[in-house]
Amino acid sequence: MEQLIQLIIYIVIFAVAGYAMWWVCKKFEVPQPVLWICGAILLIIILLFLSRQLGVGAGLAWPARK
Questions:
Q1: For 64, left (φ over 0), alpha (ψ -120 to 50), or beta?
Q2: Rounded Cα gap, residues 47 and 37, in angstroms
Q3: 61: how many CB neighbours lie within 10 A of its CB?
Q4: I need a surface site. Which of 10, 16, 36, 55 has the fewest CB within 10 A?
Q5: What's the CA dihedral at 34, 40, 43, 48 to 10 degrees?
Q6: What is the largest CA-CA distance in the chain?
Q7: For 22, what's the count of Cα atoms within 13 Å in the CB-facing half-sphere?
């Protein structure tokens, strides 16, 4: 049950961060490549998070919590 709550919290935080990045890019009218770079950064973050949760690959990304 705790893992489900943590997953929901992570999803909400990720969604808020993604929306905030999109809003800043649109508010200040940055060039399109900057928006693509922000999306790529978010994609990398979510892939690292998923690989950490599933226990595959990217073992050096974050030290294990004990």
A1: beta
A2: 15
A3: 12
A4: 55
A5: -120
A6: 43
A7: 8
What's the token pair of residue 16?
């808020």
Residues 6 or more apart whose Cβ sits within 8 Å of residue 52: 58, 61, 62
Sequential pLDDT tens for the chain (66 residues): 888 898 899 999 999 999 999 999 999 999 999 999 999 999 999 988 888 877 776 455 556 666
CA separation for the pair 50, 56 (Å, rounded): 9
DSSP code per residue over 39-53: HHHHHHHHHHHHHHH
